[in-house]
Every structure is written in structure tokens, then in C-alpha cells.
Amino acid sequence: MYGYWILLSLYGFVLMGMDKRRARRKARRIPERRLFFVAAVGGAAGTWCGMKLWRHKTKHHSFTVGIPYLVAVHIIVLLLVTGVWVWGAAA
């Protein structure tokens, strides 16, 4: 479970960097739908880190609100799935 989350976060991070680079070069961009999809299925933390590091998509309300929301949802889901939320410490 953690491996899946980490890999998708890395992928989201890389996608943000690639899109920022393409934006600067006026090249073909990565669709916002794809960036959000990767974030929604588990890559929100990496996408958010990429937003902050490269200052990319920071003026888009859907990203500045939506991505942190997805990070919170993913953390809650991970805590519930691993049992930490329910039982306190990992059992």
C-alpha cells in the first residue's frame, strides 16, 4: 500500500516538473485532467510538493484547494486502511 502511494506521488511530482518545463518552452502541455487524475488515485502528496517546488499551478484555485484536500483524504484513508486511526498505534 505504501509503495503504491510513494510511486504515484513520485509520478505526480515528476509530472508537475515536466509540465512546468513545457510551459516555459511553450511546448505541448500535460492536460490538467491528467495531473488531477494522478493526484486523485494516490499521487496528491507528490503533486502538491511539485506545485510548491516549481511554483506551478499555484494561481489555479482548483489546484490550490483541490490538491491539499486530496492529500488530507489520502492520509485519512491510509490511516484507516493500516488500522492506525482506529486502534491508535499500529497493532
TrEMBL record:
Keywords: Membrane, Transmembrane, Transmembrane helix
Pfam families: DUF1294
Transmembrane annotation, as ranges: 6-23, 35-54, 66-87
Protein name: DUF1294 domain-containing protein
Organism: Paenibacillus paeoniae
